[in-house]
Amino acid sequence: RFLKLLRSLLQEKKLFLQQLRSKAEILKHLIRTAHELKIFDQKVYIILEGKLQEISKMAYGWMQHSGSNS
Questions:
Q1: With contact defined as beta carbons under 8 Å apart, do 69 and 11 qualify?
Q2: Does pTM top 0.70 for this prediction?
Q3: Is 60 exposed, middle or buried (0-12, 13-18, 19+ CB in 10 A)?
Q4: Nearest to residue 66, comparing CAs of 6, 4, 22?
Q5: Is residue 63 within 8 Å of residue 18, measured between CB atoms?
Q6: How far apart, in whole angstroms, are the C-alpha atoms of residue 17 and residue 47?
Q7: CA angle 44, 18, 25 (to 5 degrees)
Q8: Confidence of residue 63 (pLDDT cuts 50, 70, 90)
Q9: C-alpha span between 9 and 58 (Å, rounded)
Q10: Does residue 68 surpass a pLDDT of 60?
Q11: How many CB atoms lie within 10 A of CB 24?
């Protein structure tokens, strides 16, 4: 019973991390478009893009880690 619950939680975690990465990619595209339309200046664009890259890398690392533990 405990192992079944643990597997379920790991699956939920993986799904959440996949959704997080997908949404980060969507945000990257929206921010790039906003920058191209001159809504954001270069400085804001670079900061936001860097933060989203960091989030995506961290989520990927967590996905790899949880995949190796399942």
A1: no
A2: yes
A3: middle
A4: 6
A5: yes
A6: 22
A7: 25
A8: confident
A9: 19
A10: no
A11: 19
- Radius of gyration of the CA atoms of the chain, in A: 16
- Length of the chain, please? 70
Q: Which residues are CB-neighbours of 40 under 8 A, at least 6 positions away?
A: 31, 34, 48
Report the candidate in 63, 53, 58 with the shortest Cα–Cα distance to residue 25.
53
No. of H helices and E strands in the chain? 2, 0
Chain-centre distance of CA 26, in angstroms?
10
Q: pLDDT tens digits, residue range 15-62?
A: 999 999 999 999 999 999 999 999 989 999 999 999 999 999 998 898
